[in-house]
TrEMBL record:
Its EC number is 2.7.13.3. This is Sensor protein FixL. The keyword Transmembrane helix does not apply. Keywords: ATP-binding, Coiled coil, Kinase, Membrane, Nucleotide-binding, Phosphoprotein, Transferase. The lineage of its organism: Bacteria, Pseudomonadati, Pseudomonadota, Betaproteobacteria, Burkholderiales. Its main location: membrane. The keyword Amino-acid biosynthesis does not apply. Residues 292-503 form the Histidine kinase domain.
Length: 507
């Protein structure tokens, strides 16, 4: 009996060790694992599973497996479990079907389950299941699907044509915009060389270029836009912008071309060029006209002025009061005509005849303008101290202040006139103003007064050519500033204009 007892003790020891080894394996595994019997009772669960499902140690012991399954699947799962125990074998559970588990708090999550039978002749059949939480993978798959859906939407709805080719130049895909642009349905071009969309000489050069790039890596188009011609199915040509990118898909080198039909842009550029030529021609005609006016009109005008002055002086005793008034008007109108001609010449020169841009000290320049105008004693002209230094053409800057200050003096209707020249720093620009307490201007005239030859007072009452404010506006806008006014009838007017501290380059 002693030998029998030893053998029995050894068998029990081996069984105990095997059982404990399984427990040690489950306890140390990082994957969630459980063992169930044929009735679906949880015989053993490891800590990783308890953590995954939110249960405490030992809390699942003796519970049914269906406690870990969403309620809507529990009834069907009992039948599936029973069928599996009839012919247990290792396999992945739910092939082709999404599986879900439920935590203690009721939340569901996607899982993958692997089943492994634990055969034992002395015990009832049991099954070990390994459970993986695949939430992160599902989220990544969902994000990838969303990204693919967005890319498909962009590909299908893009206004520009998108063409994908392989490294042999064979067309792999085209989007609907490409079908419309080139006149081919996708099925007709897929598998053909992209050269069918190119006219000569691009067609002949394409294979050589592609081969040159593959062998040397030298990029001539890839990553750079270029303007080429496209060839439609009907044989018509059209200008297009082409940008090519390189990518790798499944180990294949592919190239994607983004094509934009620029026919309308080309037409617009041609029209703009034509208008520019017409404008240049018109400017030349205006320049010639200004010189004709200067040379051909000023000479006889000076003769008329001299004759009128001679008559008014030498024959003053021959004129009655009405005759004297007529002579005065004649002389005034001759002088006005001369000033008008000078104004036209000045206006035509702005932006065409340029001086060197230099720093201009406005303290000194504005003081010289006021001295030159010599306003009457009853009109006080004040200049704010510390006027800034600006960079520009001295003659143009002088014309700005001269025209604005002279207008304020010329139209003053108060016995004690006040004119102020001021400035303000507005960061990227200077703002200047000329303020007076004169008659004011009605708001309905705010735009009109900046037009050429426009005056508000009768010309026989106030000598004006109607060029001054138009000249101011043209000069300010040439310097990329703006001019405007504020006024109240009977109380005065303030003219404002700005000059940028740094002039932007015009494209």
């Amino acid at each position: 009996m002693t030998g029998f007892d030893n053998r029995q003790d050894q068998a029990l020891t081996h069984s105990t060790i095997a059982e404990r080894s399984l427990q040690w394996l489950l306890a140390s595994a990082t994957d969630a694992m459980l063992i169930i019997d044929k009735d679906g009772q949880l015989v053993l669960v490891n800590p990783a599973l308890e953590t995954l499902f939110g249960y405490g140690p030992g809390e699942l012991q003796g519970k049914s497996l269906e406690a870990l399954i969403p309620e809507r699947f529990r009834h069907g799962h009992v039948g599936l479990r029973g069928n599996y125990f009839k012919r247990p074998h290792p396999r992945a559970m739910g092939a082709g079907v999404e599986l879900f588990a439920t935590r203690k708090n009721g939340t569901e999550f996607p899982v993958e389950v692997s089943l492994s039978p634990l055969p034992d002749n002395d015990m009832q059949p049991m099954v070990m299941a390994t459970i993986h939480d695949i939430s992160a993978r599902k989220q990544a798959e969902h994000a990838l699907q969303e990204s693919e859906a967005r890319m498909r939407a962009i590909f299908e709805t893009a206004v520009d044509a998108i063409i994908t080719i392989d490294e042999r130049g064979t067309i792999d895909r085209v989007n609907p915009a490409a079908e419309r642009m080139f006149g081919y349905p996708e099925a007709e071009v897929v598998g053909r060389n992209v050269k069918i969309l190119m006219p000569a000489p691009h067609r002949e050069a394409h294979d050589g270029y592609l081969q040159h790039y593959l062998s040397t890596g030298e990029k001539r188009i890839i990553g750079k836009g270029r303007e080429v011609q496209g060839l439609r199915r009907d044989g018509s040509l059209f200008p297009m912008d082409l940008a090519v990118t390189e990518m790798w898909l499944g180990g294949r080198r592919m190239f994607t071309g983004l094509v934009r039909d620029i026919t309308e842009r080309k037409h617009a550029e041609e029209k703009a060029q034509q208008l520019l030529q017409e404008l240049t021609s018109a400017n030349e005609e205006l320049t010639n006209f200004a010189y004709v006016v200067s040379h051909d009109l000023k000479a006889p005008l000076r003769g008329i002025g001299s004759l009128a002055d001679w008559l008014a002086h030498d024959y003053s005793d021959k004129f009655n009061d009405e005759g004297k008034e007529h002579m005065r008007l004649l002389i005034n109108r001759v002088h006005r005509m001369g000033a008008l001609i000078d104004g036209i010449l000045q206006y035509s020169r702005v932006g065409r005849i340029k001086e060197a841009a230099v720093p201009v000290n406005l303290d000194q320049l504005v003081a010289e303008v006021v001295d030159l105008l010599a306003p009457p004693e009853q009109i006080k002209v004040s200049i704010m101290p510390g006027m800034p230094t600006v960079v520009g053409e001295p003659t143009r800057i002088q014309q700005l202040f001269h025209n604005l200050v002279s207008n304020a003096v010329k139209y003053m209707d108060k016995p004690q006139g006040e004119v102020e020249v001021g400035w303000a720093d507005e960061g990227e620009q200077w703002r200047f103003h000329v303020r007076d307490n004169g008659p004011g201007i009605a708001e309905r005239h705010f735009e009109r007064i900046f037009q050429l030859f426009q005056t508000l007072a009768p010309r026989d009452r106030v000598e004006s050519t109607g060029v001054g404010l138009a000249l101011v506006k043209k000069i300010v806008e040439m310097y990329q500033g703006r001019v405007w006014l504020e006024s109240e009838l009977g109380k005065g007017t303030t003219f404002y204009f700005t000059l940028p501290k740094k002039r932007k380059n015009k494209e």
